[in-house]
Amino acid sequence: ITADPGISLQGFDEPNACQFADGRIFIIARAKDILVTQDQPGFPGVKLFSISEDNGRTWTKPAPLCYEDGSYVYSSASYPDTFCSSKNGKPYVIININEKPTMGCDPRSVLQIAELSTDPVVIKRDTVAIIEEKLPEHDPMVRFSMWLPLEQRETKNMLLFMKLMMSEYCPIRNGYDFNCHRYEIILPE
Predict the structure, then answer these.
(1) Which of 5, 14, 77, 86 counts the highest number of beta carbons within 10 A?
(2) Residue 91: which of 104, 100, 81 has the closest Cα?
(3) 91 bridge partner residues
(4) What angle do CA 103, 106, 111 make, to 5 degrees?
(5) Which InterPro entries match (predicted)?
(6) Does residue 180 lie within any of the structural domains?
């Protein structure tokens, strides 16, 4: 899968996939914003997605992930995750959503989960929920990224294990917080 160089400076990176109930495969990937220059219009930081209707043999052209109204879901160049819940059969994404366009890999100061609509493939804005966000006691350069998701066998809720990360520009990047934090995302029936 190759992203149009006009919408992602780094291509279609760190992909993650799930299979919709209708059999289509959804893949979401990290993309990198393109700054506006005199010669090019630029493109905001978003997540890109592609769909396969033939078990992964062919894929749609990568497109920006949007809300139902067609507006972009702004997101820094960061790891995306997706899964289909065995509790309710619904597809979800776990990503860093930003309120406005960003540059580069930051901020990753809020991590959210959102349900996907599958026709068309968009984020249902009213389902966006915060998993973790920067608090006053956090360093300003904290990052919520690089997590490990597991579905809990008994409850079928999503467990997320995440270590606090720091931006590469932070002088105390190494040794900030060595704890692994556990989050339980209680999904609806």
Answers:
(1) 77
(2) 81
(3) 84
(4) 125
(5) Sialidase_sf
(6) no
Specify if 170 maps to a domain. no
Tell me if 93 is assigned to some domain: yes
Q: What is the tally of helices (H) and strands (E) in the chain?
A: 0, 14
Q: Which pTM does this prediction carry?
A: 0.91
Domain holding 76, by residue range, is 13-135
Gyration radius (Cα) of the chain, Å: 17
pLDDT in tens, 28-61: 999 988 877 778 788 888 999 999 999 999 999 9
- CA–CA separation, 1 vs 11, rounded Å? 9
Does 140 fall in a domain?
A: no
Residue 85 confidence class, pLDDT cut points 50, 70, 90: very high
